[in-house]
Amino acid sequence: xxxxxxxxxxxxxxxxxxxxxxxxxxxxxxxxxxxxxxxxxxxxxxxxxxxxxxxx
Length: 56
Description:
Shape: rod-shaped
Strand content: under 5%
Mean pLDDT: 87
Distance between the termini: 31 Å
Number of strands: 0
């Protein structure tokens, strides 16, 4: 039973982490869409998004 509980806890934690990652990526993409960003800021955001990999 303890093994089942730890598996469920681990899966719930992973799901929560994925939700947070998706929310952060959407926020970065929204910010990147703004026209007022400096070229340096735009480049930094693009690098972050590329390093995160494809959307989860």
